[in-house]
User: Fold this.
Amino acid sequence: QVQLVESGGGLVQAGDSLRLSCAVPGRTGSSYNMGWFRQAPGKEREFLAAISWTGGSTLYSDFVKGRFTISRDDAKNTMYLQMNSLKPEDTAVYYCAASRSYYGDYRNAYDYWGQGTQVTVSS
Assistant:
C-alpha cells in the first residue's frame, strides 16, 4: 500500500501563488507515475496535471496550462504542484495520485490517493 500525503494548501488571495507537495513517506515513489486532481463542492474530481515516473513527460489540462507546473524530486520522494495567478474558481480540495502503470488524465486509472489539501482563493 502506497500512502500519499499532500501539504501546502491554505487561504490565499486572487493572484497569489501556492506550492503543493505530495510526499510518499517511508517508500520510494520514483517508480510511479503521478498526478494532481482537484474537487470543488458539488463537482466531480477533475484532472490537473500528470508527470511520468522518469519526470521526462508532463501533461496538463487546458485550464491550468501556463499557470500550474508539476514537478518531482525523487531524492525527496516528493511531487509538487506550483500554482500561480490563482483565481477564486481554483478553490477546491487538491489530491495527488499515483500509478505504477498508468500515465494520463483518467482518474479511475490511478491506484493510490492522498487525503487531500484544501486550497481557498478569495477575491
Observations:
- The radius of gyration is 13 Å.
- Residues 51 and 57 are 6 Å apart (CA to CA).
- The mean pLDDT is 93.
- The longest strand covers residues 92-99.
